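From: lab user (bench 3)
To: helpdesk
Subject: output format question, protein + fructose -6-phosphate

Hello, I'm new to running complex predictions and I'm not sure whether the block I got back is the full result or only part of it. Here's what I submitted:
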Amino acid sequence: MKILILPDKTAAVSSAARTLADKVRDQPTAILGLATGETMIPLYRAILEISVTEFLSFSKISTFNLDEYVGLPFDHSASFRTYMQNWLFQHADFNPELTHFLDGDAKDLILETSRYEKLIADVGGIDLQLLGIGENGHIGFNEPSSSLASRTRIKTLTKTTLEANKIHFKDIKKMPLYSLTMGVGTILDSRQCVLLATGSKKASAVAQMIEGPVTATCPASALQFHPNTLVILDDQAARDLKMRDYYEYVHPGINNVT
Ligand code: F6R
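Helpdesk reply: Thanks, we reran it on our side. This is the complete output you should expect:
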């Protein structure tokens, strides 16, 4: 794992946006795995800003979103498709035919998860998978106890996750209890993973992911097996790391990056 610790959230977001922008510029037909959530909003804003100043085109980029709630129509205000439209796709030249989602409202959810796995395999796999991390150590919606070899499937959401995401639902009683998510194994198949975590709420999960044992109790810890994972943190998210001095020594000067 390459661990970059930036002085604050703005710097961490800029660093992640730079990584993503470089990928799009260097490989205009790249297959990107995308995440949703609060952490990604400033990152998508930053990548859009870069795309304007550096004339970046996304027209040949393919995307696969990590997860989706079960039972929400695509156009529901809290669906991840709506999120992606609002925060990224509608502001740039993405080709809608190349942006892929799990359909949480599919009649046959098992079939839907195998369709997605096959689609990812058919395009040759994901080049760069963008990730956030849940306070409970989830990646995608792979909640604690997820098999570290899991593939795209239905996953029951934990109370922690429901609590963290309830603001997006007007009626909490109608919040989906299940999700479709790429599996941990699916994520590990990506050629590169870039995980962005900001804020003190993520500090404990981040420390378990990087320095804890590899365990299904913290699904993100499976990234220790991935040969090309970049973790970008702000000062707060890095707070509980025991070997912080070492990470800062390995990547000197990174604290000056803006
Ligand atoms: C959502 C996803 C999740 C989030 C995680 C953090 O597509 O992949 O794993 O990245 O729940 O969410 P925020 O950023 O809202 O704290």
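A quick orientation on your result: The first strand starts at residue 2 and ends at 6. Let us know if anything else is unclear.
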